[in-house]
Amino acid sequence: MTRARILPDRALEERLLVRYPLVGGMDEVGRGSLAGPVSVGLAVVSRATPAAFPAGLADSKQLTPRRREALVEPCRAWAVDHAVGHAAPAEIDAVGIIGALRLAGQRALAEVALRGHLPGAIILDGTMNWLRPAPADAAEQTTAPAAVTPVGPAASVAVASAARPIPSVYTSVKADAHCAVVAAASVLAKVERDALMTALPDPGYDWTRNKGYTSPAHIEGLARLGASDQHRRSWHLPGLDRFTARAAGADPAPLRAAAPVQAPTRTVAVADAPAGPAAGRDAHWA
């Protein structure tokens, strides 16, 4: 039996628009990839945004590549503003995946802020507010790792501009499926990141098909070629042990597919988390 697709609506964003003139939806792509950037899409709506969002809009994971690409221009036209921020593999290695998500999200916010469209509230998919740093990590809000170059269209936005006030954050489980503005952000992020991965020089990792995620061809490429500058070197990279063994003159073990496992990273609590979740499926982190 096929599970029915969750259809998005505007209920949550319209509730927030009563309080905030501009509301943004954010979603990330590439969090579990072995290579390439982690990307955060942002779509911004206002009280004047048309009630009817693009036909067929849904969580990007539920759409075919062709359908996602067809939705890009309608989503851009529907939103007041939009942006996709990226954090490079070296940045992921330097600050961890949560810190990299924060960098990418702040870059997207900085881009729309330069055009006068900084939202007062952000809707994030899930339950974790990765956009706002805990006090111990406050330096990450304005400082990027040294000698690392941001990627993608948002790269021209100075990292220091991320020091702008961070909007209030509302988390909602499966917001990328049930919330139209987050679904739009997910489509924009997915299409842009896929295009970045497809355009990379590929000596044999099969970027075009796997977009940096685990696949038999990708693991075989790691076993033959080792890790490239696009790989997250702090992560466990399946197949890399075979390359290392061969380089050392040892007889490598048979190649086995393995799920990606990130190297242990420091976990911090978000200081402004509420004592308990808000009513319903949504939580507000001011």
Task: Describe the overall structure.
- With 286 residues, this protein is an alpha/beta fold.
- A 6-stranded mixed sheet has the order 3-2-1-4-5-6.
- A hairpin with an 8-residue loop joins strand 1 and strand 2.
- The longest helix is centred in the middle third of the chain and has 26 residues.
- It is elongated and about 65 Å long.
SSE pattern, N- to C-terminal: HEEHEHEEHHHHHE
Q: Please provide the count of β strands.
A: 6
Average pLDDT value?
82
Low-confidence stretches: 136-163, 255-280
- Widest sheet, order of strands: 3-2-1-4-5-6
Total helices: the number is 8
Distance between the termini: 41 Å
Beta fraction of the residues?
5-15%
**What's the main sheet like?**
6 strands, mixed
How large is the radius of gyration? Answer: 19 Å
Helix content: 25-40%
The secondary-structure class comes to: alpha/beta
Overall form: elongated
Write the layout of secondary structure elements.
Layout: H1 11-17, E1 22-29, E2 38-46, H2 65-78, E3 81-87, H3 89-114, E4 121-125, E5 168-172, H4 175-178, H5 180-199, H6 207-210, H7 216-225, H8 240-247, E6 282-285
Parallel strand pairs: 1-4, 4-5
Antiparallel strand pairs: 1-2, 2-3, 5-6
